[in-house]
C-alpha cells in the first residue's frame, strides 16, 4: 500500500469537506436577512416598490415601477414604456376624458373624437366626410328643408330650396303648365274640368246643352213647328212637307219596311230670358257604327216653340256621332230641340 504525500492529503481533505458541508448545510428563510435577489437569479433587483405600482421589465436591470393614475394602462409603441392616462385614439380610445352630456361622438382622424351636441332636428352632413350637425334636414339630404308646414297643406317641390306648402282650398288641385305651380280651385276647361261651379256655368264654358234624357219618341208629340231644310245636312229625305214633326215621324214610322225610329229624345238648352242661343251640341254614339249603317241613318231635329228665330241643323254625321247646331235671336222659357234618329230597314 502506498502512502499519500502532503499534497495528496490536502486534496483529500478538501474533497471530504465539500461532501460533508453540502450534506449538513441547511438554512431557514428567516436566516436570510440581508441582500437583494438580482434579476438574473429570478428576483426583481429591488428591495422596495411603490405602493400599487405595476412592475414592468427592464432587461437585466431592476424592474421599473409604473405608478397608477386615473385612466387606462397603455403603451404608444411595441416594447414602449407603459403608462396610465386617457386612452388615445391610436390605442383604441377616444382621446378624451370627458364628453358633453348626450353628445354624439364623431371621428377626427388620429386626434381626439369630437363631441356633436344634440339639437332639435336630424343628424346630417352636407358633404362626404363633412362635419355632422343637427338641424332641419335640407332638401339635398333628403328632407323638406322646412321645420313647419301649414296644416293640411300639400307639399310641392321647389328645386333645391325648401318645399312649398300649397294650402288647400275648395276645388281641385291642378297646374296650368308643365312644372307650373300647383293650386286649388275650380278645374278649368283646359285642365279637363268645366271651369264652372254650377251646371249652368259649366254648360256655358263648354258650349254645351243640357240633356233632358228622354228615351221615347212620344216626347216628339209636343213639337209644333215643321222641320225646314234640316234633312239636307244628312241626306235627301223629304221631311219638309207641311205638318208638325209628329206627323212626319209617324208617317215614316208607319212606312213598314222603309224607316224605323231607333232613338228619339229632347235636348234641353236651359232656361233663359231675352238671351241669344248659339250652341253646338255634340251627340256621340255609345259605340261607333259602321260606314254602311251611317249611310242608312237619318237624324231629324225640330226646335221648340218658345224661341224667336230659333233654327237647328244636323251636321257632321259620322260613324261616331253628329252635331246639332242651334241658333236663336232670343228665348223665353226653356229652349230645346226635339230629335229622332231613324234607320232604313230595307
Outline the structure in words.
This protein has 346 residues and is α+β, with helices and mostly antiparallel strands. It is built from 4 helices and 20 strands. The strands form 8 sheets. Strands 13, 14, 16, 17 and 20 form a 5-stranded antiparallel β-sheet that branches. The protein has a 3-stranded antiparallel β-sheet with strand order 15-19-18, with no helix packed on it. Strands 1-2 form a two-stranded antiparallel ribbon. The chain is rod-shaped and about 175 Å long. Residues 209-249 and 251-259 have low confidence and may be disordered.
List keywords for this structure.
346 residues; alpha+beta; five-stranded antiparallel β-sheet; three-stranded antiparallel β-sheet; 12% helix
Structural class: alpha+beta
Number of strands: 20
Tell me the overall shape.
Answer: rod-shaped
Q: What Rg do the Cα atoms give? A: 56 Å
The helicity comes to: 10-25%
Layout of helices and strands:
Layout: H1 6-24, E1 54-56, E2 64-66, E3 72-74, E4 83-85, E5 104-106, E6 114-116, E7 122-124, E8 133-135, E9 154-156, E10 164-166, E11 172-174, E12 183-185, H2 199-206, E13 210-211, H3 245-254, E14 259-273, E15 277-284, H4 291-295, E16 297-303, E17 307-308, E18 311-315, E19 321-328, E20 330-344
Antiparallel strand pairs: 1-2, 3-4, 5-6, 7-8, 9-10, 11-12, 13-14, 14-20, 15-19, 16-20, 17-20, 18-19
